């Protein structure tokens, strides 16, 4: 769940923006007619007559009048008065004499005084933030129509650049073998663009990941954001590049065997959103809003809370999902704060996480809709609800985020009391398949493991984790061996494989962070990257790492995982203490055991007995691993 504190400040700013939009000098009130939608109309803009005409619509129930203003009518509210359908819900107008090659800016004027952009547009112009977008990131960005209007404007163009997809038969990795790399474009390269991220693809290929999860890339408020303050759901944020640059990024990933998962934020929206502004009293949404609750129904909300029991919200959400699936060939969605899709009021997390039949019904409906479009699409939920609820969703094929940060970090720091990360095993959740549990030690939302290792790590004698980079990196290697030793899909947060040790709170929680590509030239950090690459290769190449036959003991200093498949057994064993510890583990068979990361051992019986140094680990197998 997003604890994006700076967003609360944005709420106040967007309240001001909403008030300003509502108090601009009123336009002459147009005289509206009633008429049914013409053939070919759709939400937003539908071009007809070879792009020389457009039917523009706006869903705005209960409004008195709507007009369309833009470059095509010199921003006159009396030139393009919109008709309303007989049910009074939808407004539309046909604009003629357009040049298909021209990009037009436009807005709606609602009830004579509110100017809003099109909720369904694929691009917006921002008078405050576009000036900070480099031409190298977004070439030939259309200028804002200064002096013509105020506020965010939409753009439309019939013959816009079309991306020609090269990889049209991509086969997605099996869920169980997914190794997801969560990535924030802003903090991945200094150029903060799809193109510069794409230039690092060889680095990701070398690591062995097979999926990239992009933090939100649809238009959000400002430029320097995590993206969880969305306002336009069909428009890629221009700070990262053009629509075709994003499509090319996805296409090139597919060409290298990498799926692309999009972080989808449909729990809430922010004040820049025209959907918020259309029904807003200056402080919060009104009771007449088709999409938003007046007050949030749960305690973790930021911005304005969507009502997912509303048919208007269901339709809009499904339109957004379908659009990204079809227009961008996205392979999956990670739904932010999916537990928030509820109308059951709660005041604390203890109430919020209880089984909610209404929320389950909403997610079953959305999941079924997505699968009707693409049966193999990844649906990943940041849910963290009661186990009985998560089991129902998992049984429907949805995948659930599984946060192991606290216990794994206690283990890496050598503080053993809270270091049992057995929650990484799907059976403890009641799930029947490991593929439904996406486990991780780090995410965008958690403190970086190595930051805490270096600052708070335990130690004894000459073995110190705190203040010792080399030792702290070896502890990262140790925990990674166990993370990838557990069955099921896994996720890595960017640069965790290099032991990134800048705090999540540096420059403010959601503020931009130092980009440390120089880490890759540091031999000790490169060694961690190489260890990650080895563990990932072992996971993807050996089905035993998805075996359903396993035992483990993850309490105490000596921890182990034992996996059996056919004639082979794998045992991952390590010492998480800061002093030597004796390991006594039943391997089940005598003979030579091969170590994927060290020296083989010969056992006279099935018992493995060894004195392990702090941080020492092994990956033993009876049959050689690929």
From TrEMBL:
Family annotation (Pfam families):
Alpha-amylase, CBM_48
Which UniProt keywords are given for this protein, alphabetically ordered?
Answer: Signal
Record domain Glycosyl hydrolase family 13 catalytic: where: 188-539
Instruction: Kindly indicate where the leader peptide sits in this chain.
Output: 1-21
Transmembrane segments in this chain: where?
A: none
In terms of SUPFAM superfamilies, this protein maps to: (Trans)glycosidases, E set domains
GO biological-process terms attached to the record: carbohydrate metabolic process
List GO molecular-function terms, semicolon-separated: hydrolase activity, hydrolyzing O-glycosyl compounds
Q: Which family does it belong to?
A: Belongs to the glycosyl hydrolase 13 family.
Could you identify this protein by its name?
A: 1,4-alpha-glucan branching enzyme
């Amino acid at each position: 769940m997003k604890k994006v504190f700076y967003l609360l400040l944005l709420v106040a700013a967007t309240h001001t923006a909403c008030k300003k939009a509502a108090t601009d000098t009123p336009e002459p009130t147009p005289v509206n007619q009633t008429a049914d939608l013409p053939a070919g109309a759709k939400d937003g803009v539908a071009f007809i007559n070879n792009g020389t005409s457009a039917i523009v619509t706006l869903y705005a129930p209960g409004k008195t009048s709507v007009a369309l203003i833009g470059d095509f009518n010199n921003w006159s509210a009396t030139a393009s008065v919109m008709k309303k359908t007989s049910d009074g819900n939808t407004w539309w107008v046909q604009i003629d004499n357009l040049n298909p090659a021209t990009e037009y800016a436009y807005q709606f004027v609602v009830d004579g005084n509110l100017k809003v952009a099109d909720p369904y547009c694929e691009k917006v112009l921002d008078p405050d933030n576009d000036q900070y977008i480099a031409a190298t990131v977004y070439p030939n960005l259309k200028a804002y129509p200064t002096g013509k209007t105020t506020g965010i404007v939409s753009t439309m163009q019939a013959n816009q650049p079309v991306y020609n997809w090269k990889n049209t038969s991509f086969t997605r990795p099996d869920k169980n073998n997914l190794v997801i790399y969560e990535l924030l474009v802003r903090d991945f390269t200094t150029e903060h663009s799809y193109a510069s991220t794409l230039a690092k693809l060889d680095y990701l290929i070398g690591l062995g990941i097979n999926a990239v999860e992009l933090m939100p890339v649809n238009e959000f408020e400002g430029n320097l954001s995590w993206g969880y303050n969305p306002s336009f759901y069909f428009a890629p944020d221009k700070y990262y590049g053009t629509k075709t640059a994003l499509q090319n990024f996805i296409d090139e990933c597919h060409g290298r065997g990498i799926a692309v998962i999009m972080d989808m934020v449909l729990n809430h929206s922010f004040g820049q959103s025209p959907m918020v502004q259309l029904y807003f009293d200056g402080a919060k949404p009104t009771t007449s809003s088709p999409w938003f609750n007046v007050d949030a129904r749960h305690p973790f909300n930021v911005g304005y809370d969507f009502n997912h029991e509303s048919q208007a919200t269901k339709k809009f959400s499904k339109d957004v999902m379908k659009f990204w699936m079809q227009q961008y060939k996205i392979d999956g969605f990670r739904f932010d704060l999916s537990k928030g899709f509820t109308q059951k009021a709660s005041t604390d997390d203890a109430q919020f996480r209880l089984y909610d039949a209404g929320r389950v019904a909403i997610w079953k409906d959305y999941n079924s809709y997505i699968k009707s479009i693409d049966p193999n699409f990844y649906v990943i939920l940041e849910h963290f609800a009661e186990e009985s609820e998560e089991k129902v969703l998992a049984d429907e094929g949805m995948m659930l985020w599984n946060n192991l940060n606290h216990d794994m970090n206690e283990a890496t720091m050598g503080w053993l009391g809270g270091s049992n990360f057995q929650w990484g095993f799907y059976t403890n959740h009641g799930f029947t398949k490991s593929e439904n549990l996406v486990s991780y030690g780090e995410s965008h939302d958690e403190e970086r493991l190595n930051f805490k290792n270096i600052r708070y790590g335990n130690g004894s004698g000459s073995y110190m984790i705190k203040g010792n980079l080399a030792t702290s990196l070896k502890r990262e290697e140790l925990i990674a061996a166990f993370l990838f030793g557990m069955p099921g899909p896994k996720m890595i947060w960017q640069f965790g494989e290099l032991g990134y040790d800048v705090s999540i709170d540096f420059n403010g929680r959601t503020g931009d962070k130092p980009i440390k590509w120089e880490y890759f030239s540091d031999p000790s950090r490169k060694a961690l990257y190489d260890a990650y690459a080895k563990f990932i290769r072992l996971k993807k190449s050996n089905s035993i790492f998805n075996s359903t036959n396993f035992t483990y003991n993850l309490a105490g200093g000596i921890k182990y995982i034992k996996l059996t498949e056919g004639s082979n057994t794998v045992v991952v064993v390590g010492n998480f203490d800061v002093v030597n510890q004796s390991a006594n583990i039943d391997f089940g068979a005598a003979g030579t055991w091969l170590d994927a990361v060290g020296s083989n051992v010969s056992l006279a019986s099935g018992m493995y007995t060894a004195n392990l140094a702090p941080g020492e680990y092994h990956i033993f197998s009876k049959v050689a691993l690929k």
